[in-house]
Every structure is written in structure tokens, then in C-alpha cells.
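A reminder from the course coordinator: this example appears on the midterm review sheet, so study it carefully.

Given structure:
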């Protein structure tokens, strides 16, 4: 990906969800960095233009300090429920952390393979 944006939609694509009672599992795998000391960067997914609310946001936050300022391979996963069947617009973003106003000097996917996985899951099988 090799993207130095601090605030951006990094990727967008469509996924066809087959059933309304299922959840979407979203996974990012790749290198991430927040370089400036004392700053924070946040990577997150949106579905149809909004962040997931059930059960919660699918995100990764990195707070930088002199001890952890390098590019490191990361992955994060979360599930989102309540998305209707049909075409779902999925976005992968980088931005500011909650309560922070400063630019964070983020970097996404440096000289490595970056991957996004989307799976449709049946949650809570009952009797």
C-alpha cells in the first residue's frame, strides 16, 4: 500500500452480503506506524459510510513514543452486525484518535504485503 496519509480513506470496495441475519468479519493485516513522539494514529473500517455500532467499532490505535516509532506488522479483526443483505460499501481509513487534534505522522503498508479480509459469519447459533 505504501501510503503516508495521516487522514484519508485508504481503500474502498464493495462486498455482496448474502443474508441479513449474519455478521461481517473485517480483518486488516500489514505494517502500520505512528511516528511523531506523543501522537496517536487510528485505522478503522466503515460499512456503507458509517463505523460499526454493533457490537462496536473495528479499529486499531497506535500511540507513538521514542520506544515504538518503527513500522511494525499489525493485524486487527472485528465483527459488525446489523448490516442488511445486499451490496455493502466497505472503507478502510486512517485518522486522528479520539480526543486528539494534532497530525500524527501515520504510515500504512511499507514495503510489505497489506491485506484486507471480509467474511460473512453466522453468529450465535441457537437451538
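Designed residues:
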Amino acid at each position: 500500500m505504501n501510503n503516508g496519509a495521516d487522514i484519508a480513506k485508504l481503500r474502498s470496495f464493495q462486498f455482496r452480503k448474502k443474508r441479513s441475519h449474519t455478521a461481517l468479519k473485517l480483518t486488516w493485516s500489514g505494517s502500520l506506524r505512528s511516528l511523531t513522539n506523543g501522537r496517536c494514529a487510528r485505522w478503522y473500517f466503515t460499512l456503507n459510510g458509517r463505523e460499526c455500532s454493533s457490537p462496536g467499532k473495528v479499529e486499531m490505535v497506535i500511540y507513538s513514543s521514542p520506544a515504538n516509532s518503527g513500522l511494525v506488522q499489525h493485524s486487527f479483526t472485528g465483527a459488525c452486525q446489523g448490516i442488511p443483505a445486499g451490496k455493502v460499501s466497505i472503507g478502510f481509513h486512517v485518522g486522528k484518535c479520539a480526543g486528539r487534534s494534532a497530525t500524527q505522522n501515520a504510515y500504512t503498508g511499507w514495503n510489505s504485503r497489506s491485506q484486507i479480509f471480509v467474511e460473512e459469519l453466522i453468529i450465535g447459533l441457537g437451538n
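The chain has no helices and eight strands. Residues 9 and 93 are 4 Å apart (CA to CA).
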